[in-house]
Amino acid sequence: MKIIILGTAYPYRGGLSAFNERLAYEYQSQGHEVEIYTFTHQYPDFLFPGKTQYSTEPEPEGLKIVRKVHSYNPFNWIKVGREIKRKRPDVMITKFWLPFMAPCFGTIARIVRRNKHTRLISILDNVIPHEHRIGDKMFVRYFIRPTDGFVAMSKSVLADLRLFTADKPAVFSPHPLYDHYGKRLPREEALSLLKLSPDSCYVLFFGFIRSYKGLDLLLEAFADNRLKEDNVKLIVAGEFYGDSEPYLKQIKDLQIEDRIVLCTDFIPDSEVNRYFSAADIVAQPYKTATQSGVTQIAFHFEKPMLVTNVGGLPEIVPDGRIGYVTEPDPKQIADALHRFFAENKQAEFERNVVEEKKQYAWSEFIASIEKVMQ
Question: Which of 39, 196, 307, 321 meets the CB 3.0–4.6 Å disulfide criterion with 191?
Answer without folding.
Answer: 196
